[in-house]
Amino acid sequence: MGEDALPDGEHWLSPAEAEVLARLRYTKRRTEYLLRRLVTKHAVASVTGRSTEDLAGIEVRNAPSGAPFVCVDGHRVELGVSISDRAGWAVCVTCPTESPAVGCDLELVEPRTPGFVADFLTPAEQQWVASRPDPDAAANLIWSAKESALKVLQTGLRRDTRSVEVTVDEPRDDGWGSERARGRRAGVSGLVATRRPIPADDGSRRDAPAASPARRPRRPRRRTTAAFLAGPPATPLTSPVRRRRRCRAAPPRRR
């Protein structure tokens, strides 16, 4: 979903969500907060059969680790969720809690410095990125998969990103391809489906969500990478691995 889908007003937020929103001072942070909740509420309504006319009864909360979970009418539902937003768009994936954990990440295709690639990617991933005709797209593709895997592990960027290594298959005709993310020290593996929508010649993005009545100016269409991973959940780290970064460019923060 995009920013243009945000409803007017705050009637669709729970009282607790409205309180959090009131404490956010900056427009960008407020918009990200609203967009992440809107896409999650719609996803939960879709899988539970709840009407989207009553989104206030669906509340998105965060565990101490930062991982999101959902309550409906004040009661936690047995449903796993993973949320990501970037540049005015957001995505949410869900799964039953007894199923493999899920993680998702949405990124812009933007320049990545050699320092970023060397610092956050494994040697094998670095070689793959260097071999691609579009290294920036390749680096962002790998990064999306890593973020997704680390969400499955419930550690986020507290864990060394090189503890998860991604291998990539060639994309299909529809733009989707499969990736395998295996934790060398974390013991997690799974499949990642990756989408790289490219703006069409008329300036509109292929496979973009259906337009809603515009209430905000649309952002320019840009190439993105998206990764969706399912794998066995792991026990969260009690002593996160921290390491010195060799480059100034920090990875995108997990919101």
Describe this structure in words.
The protein has helices at residues 15-23, 27-48, 114-120, 123-131, 135-152, and strands spanning 58-62, 68-72, 75-76, 79-86, 89-96, 101-108, 164-168, 177-183, 189-195, 224-231. It is of the alpha+beta class. The protein folds into two domains: 1-99, Ribosomal Protein L22, Chain A, CATH 3.90.470; 100-255, 4'-phosphopantetheinyl transferase domain (Ribosomal Protein L22, Chain A). It has a five-stranded antiparallel beta sheet, covered by helices on one side. α4 (123-131) runs antiparallel to α5 (135-152). Mean pLDDT is 75; it is low at 184-221 and 233-255.
Find the CATH superfamily of the largest domain. Answer: 4'-phosphopantetheinyl transferase domain
The CATH topology label of the largest domain is Ribosomal Protein L22, Chain A
- The total strand number stands at 10
Identify the overall geometry.
Answer: elongated
Biggest β-sheet description: 5 strands, antiparallel
Q: How much of the polypeptide forms β-strand, as a percent range?
A: 15-25%
Question: Characteristics of this structure?
Answer:
Ribosomal Protein L22, Chain A; five-stranded antiparallel β-sheet; alpha+beta; 255 residues; elongated; 2 domains; three-stranded antiparallel β-sheet
Please give the structural blueprint.
Layout: H1 15-23, H2 27-48, E1 58-62, E2 68-72, E3 75-76, E4 79-86, E5 89-96, E6 101-108, H3 114-120, H4 123-131, H5 135-152, E7 164-168, E8 177-183, E9 189-195, E10 224-231
Antiparallel strand pairs: 1-2, 2-3, 4-5, 6-10, 7-8, 8-9, 9-10
